[in-house]
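This section describes the prediction task in plain terms. A model, or a person checking by hand, is given the sequence of a single protein chain and must write out its three-dimensional structure as a string of tokens. No templates, partner chains or ligands are provided. The sample shown here is typical of the held-out split.
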Amino acid sequence: MKAPATAICAYDLDFPDTLPRLFPQTDAKSWFTGKPELTENTARLSASLQAAYFLIACRGLGLDLGPMGGFDAGKVDQAFFPEGRLKSFLLMNIGYGDPSKLHPRNPRLDFSEACRVA
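The expected answer:
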């Protein structure tokens, strides 16, 4: 509750409208026309990757982050994105944590447990 900033990570359902400018090599916008499920799935995946880059960049600057799911996205969207094209999926509290209250890093799976190379 004392974090000085909270980032709302959201995906843009209208992202195909930017494709002619950002990916001009082909008519990528047409890939999503009339396909709302594909559009939303692609937007959410791409936004998740960008959120991970954001998290890594903030941590690289020495900041502590508290990513949170399980919030009422509908209420967040209503308050911050009432036009309906942006959909929140993750909140990130950002600041400098109190070292005496920070938990140590949790254990991680070994590479061989988490990955399979074929």
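For orientation: The helical segments are 19-22, 36-60, 73-80, 111-114.
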